Amino acid sequence: MKISYKKFFDSPQVPESTIYLILGKPYHLQNEVQHRIEAFFSKAGSSIKHLVVDSDFDLSDIRDDFESYALFEEKKVIVLNVVSNTIPKCLLDYLLNNNLSKDLSLIIKLGPQTPAFKKGKFLSMIDSKGCIIEVSELTGPTLNSWVKQKFKKNNINYSDELFTKLIDKNEGNSSSISQELYKMSLLNITDIAIYFDYLQKEYKFTEYDLIDSILERNLFRSRRILAYLKAIKSSEVYILFLINSEIKKIYYLLNNLSPQPYIPNFKRNLYNTFSRNSDSDNVSDLLELCFVIDKKIKTGKGQVKVWHQLEILVSSFILNEPLNHISKEIS
């Protein structure tokens, strides 16, 4: 049997099985599924044993549980938290060739797997004999419903405006929202408005957040940060300088010019990927636009909507689109 995270929690009862595979990500949603299954077995009197599975997993850690039979039929559950990329072959073979006793149940937590794994014998076996709960990032109404349930469980009041603000601030990422909810529980927050007031500083962006978003080609976040920087009256000249520096780095990488710009090792892959997906002519035009904007700001000659021009600059850089195309979209 295979079900989704949503269907699993929409059901009033945990589906009965001897083996459960919690498959996918994010991790915190996997944990929610695990905790509900564990609660179901604990209520029935089963003991719970947790094991971490890595590439060097020792089968002796589970062999006794599989192969010994308790005199008084003690019910037990083994939770295998697989932290390696996939289930080690030794464990996979063992699970395929050994049946669970009637007193033993198994919960396996596993991250996203390749199509080949999903078509393999192991998943087929669990699909026919057990229960696969597929976990994926929540979106849309499902995400909204999940957050509202969390608010209800923690007795947190909220307005529609601040509810939307929390979702937008975390860009719909349930892992980030989960961290926010955890902070609220630590602070004994009963109204989300108090939380936003208390942690106001955490909701500010910096110019460097803008640069990171540009390099990640995250247009939505980059525009949000630009709007925020405009609202707090950040220095237009300084922001332009930072953007121009990044454009120049990409231009030098694209054209293999010397001296090569300084790029930290941990960001080199990011810059190389960005440059591979950029057009030299487009980048050259962006450098020219930087010069024009800078000149108009410093001389005060001619009318220029600086923030509008910065948005055009950033959008063209991220999308690798000619300036005239972007100008028509934004104007």
Structural key phrases:
17 helices; 58% helix; 6-stranded parallel β-sheet
Shape: elongated
Structural class: alpha/beta
Low-confidence parts: none
Beta-strand residue percentage: 5-15%
**Which whole number gives the mean pLDDT?**
87
Span between N and C termini?
52 Å
What would you say this structure looks like, in words?
The protein is α/β, with parallel strands linked by helices and 331 residues long. It has 17 helices and 6 strands. The protein has helices spanning 5-10, 27-43, 60-67, 89-97, 115-118, 121-129, 140-153, 160-169, 174-186, 192-198, 207-215, 219-231, 236-255, 265-276, 280-299, 306-319, 323-330, and strands spanning 2-4, 19-24, 47-53, 76-82, 104-110, 131-135. Strand 4 (76-82), helix 4 and strand 5 (104-110) form a beta-alpha-beta unit. Helix 11 (207-215) packs antiparallel against helix 12 (219-231) and helix 13 (236-255) packs across helix 14 (265-276). The chain starts with a strand and ends with a helix. 23% of the residues are buried. The model has no long low-confidence stretch (mean pLDDT 87).
Topology:
Layout: E1 2-4, H1 5-10, E2 19-24, H2 27-43, E3 47-53, H3 60-67, E4 76-82, H4 89-97, E5 104-110, H5 115-118, H6 121-129, E6 131-135, H7 140-153, H8 160-169, H9 174-186, H10 192-198, H11 207-215, H12 219-231, H13 236-255, H14 265-276, H15 280-299, H16 306-319, H17 323-330
Helix pairs in contact: 11-12, 12-16, 13-14, 13-15, 13-16, 15-16, 16-17
